[in-house]
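Weekend entry, working from home. Most of the wet-lab plans are on hold until the incubator is repaired, so I used the time to fold the two sequences that have been sitting in the queue since the last round of cloning. Logging both here for the record. First:
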Amino acid sequence: MTLEEIERQFPEVSKNTREAYDRLNGRANRGGLYAQLRGAKETLKKKGLLKGVKEKTESEILGLEAEIREAEAEYNKFQTQKNLLTREFNKLKKAEEEGKLKEVTAKGAGNVYQKAIDGLKEAELSLQGYKGEEKYQTAYRKAQAAYETAVSSGLKPKPLGTPRIPVPQVEDETSKGKAGTEEEAEDNLSSFISTLADPANSKLLEEVQRDFAKNFGYKGPVDGQYSLRFQDEVDRIARDRSSLPKSLQGKDFRSFIADDASAKLLNTKTGGSGAADLTDYGTIASPSTAKSAINQIFQAELQRDATAEELKKLTPGLIAAQKKNPNRVKMVNGVRQTTQGLDVGQWITDRVQKLPEFAQRKKDKTIPDIQILQDTARNNGLTLLPSQIESYRIRLQNGEKVETIQSNIRAIAANAMPDNVKKLLDAGSDLTEVYQPYRQSMATILEIPMDKIDLNDPTLTNAITDKGNMTLFDFKKSLRKDPRWQYTDNARETVSSGLTTVLKDFGFMG
């Protein structure tokens, strides 16, 4: 049952309950069945009753008792219905409030994660050699924390990929003392090594040695015999694993080394030489990742996304170029050395700037002014047609000032406006400024984003007429008559508040 259904049913059930109660107990000066029965019984107690009166009174008592049983059953039925509706109402209301809180929390976490992803993309494009590494690492950690928050709030965001460069974990004050701290990790590793060193666990040790050989290039014997050489391998892999984000470390060290993908995360294969090439990392492995990087540059250079044809042409070239020149890491005597590969942002930028459109935009100095005129039109409830834009472009190229054309646009918008609005537009104001307080009220009461409120909305334009301006108080009152108001949380809370008052009046809520 929904809140709306309860709100529809409750008045009728309350009415039936009250009528059944009044039937039994009576109203102000009118006796109910209980009073009638008491009267009949008092009459029967009187001495000297005629036989006929006595028989009639006894018959009346029997009839009243039967009627009372029926009325009590009816009252109990309606009272039970009221109690059920009240409990269900409170339950649904609580669930609704909890749901809203959860939804708001999840939405906020999702927004934070998206902003963190955008920041990470920006930091990724600024990577050039060793430049920008610290900015990228900070952005990656921030995105990782936002991802974990989003997951804990019930969302299922797309996970972060492998970092473009190694991102060591940074222990802060808040992480000390929590599960998974460095001290606990060391204790767990020490316990794991002690378990492997126990001769009783030789089969487990042999399995671990086999995983090391398969996934990390371990060249020692796989015989279930513990050795210092094997312990050195354990220490080295554990040290490299600790530099990964927690989400990539696996649930424990044993599961990590058993995963054949772990070596790629560490970018390492040991060959026992002391200096080994590590696997490449940070390559653009999918068209969707390439599309995001390409569109980011197109927006920066041309203020638009790439077309399907442009994506089809650039994506395979970008993937091939980065595979040919990937980011690389070497371990030399235990020291990690990074070599930056292809600069993705620059590769895309070079190709965008070779497009005829880029050359034309660079040559055409009217583009910023055209954008100003489009914004002015939009701020006055108008949309410029392509023919109008071209006409304005020619006028600008011929030396006409952008302010003059802005005044023309405002004059067009003022044609259908009251005189008091025309005067404001003539003075250089836009309709967005004129209607701002009314749009703000609409956004709040009708729960509509302000930028989604059309400047030609009849509710909005009725606020200012030739007869004068509505006060904000009267305008807000009129908004509650707008058909859109009934679908808002504000309206539902108002109705629920009224229902709560009814419940309190009948004594079903404290």
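Second, folded right after the first finished:
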Amino acid sequence: MRDILSRAAREVLQQFAWSNVLVAFDFDGTLAPIVRDPDKAAMRATTRRLLGEVAALYPCIVVSGRAQADVRRSLHGVHLQQVVGNHGIEPWQATRPLMEEVKRWVPVLSRRLSPFKGVRIENKTFSVAVHYRRSREKKKARAAILEAAAALGPIRVMGGKQVVNILPAGAPHKGIALEKERDRLRRDTAIYVGDDETDEDVFGLDQPGRLLAVRVGPKRVSQASYYVKNQAAVDELLAVLVGLRKEPELALAAHS
């Protein structure tokens, strides 16, 4: 992986920024720092301002594992082309049968996981996230969550940062969501920035020259080709993207 803000990668970022590009971001861990209580996740004021500037210069979307309504509240006031929720399920496959299926899971998970303190079940209407960040026995809690999930029937399980995501089998993922939005907005290329295992569905798309995949924090096993050093560095990337549309030569010189 290479640092997308390094001198060696500047030409790649420049080419994508000047193309007919869609810019897309995950939310938690990307636009907002990871926090102990997911309900309190929020963007820094600088990130909000810079994201607003990027969204004014590029078609811009957010693709989140959160419920669509939840992440929309966090992004209120930023003019985005789309907010995709539940890892790609919302808005396209947000159906009542799917909602009823997920609703059936919750009491099963609650019953099986009740002995584990610090485990919280989040019903996101069309998927479930089981958080174990507050558990004192994280390995045991995660193993119990996976065992409980296996009893639900046909599902898709995705890991995360001290969370297990449970989705209906066959549900779309973030990679599908990005491609759908790129087609809808008639973009030729896309820049995607994410930080988690769920973002690997985008990073793994085999689209040389059409997708610039940027991971927040380097990771040896990730399919992303580029990274920014940490979540705080997302602000720097946003500032460079703004500069590449407003004053391209100055933007590149400032980050040489």
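Plan for Monday: verify the second prediction. The first helix runs from residue 10 to 17.
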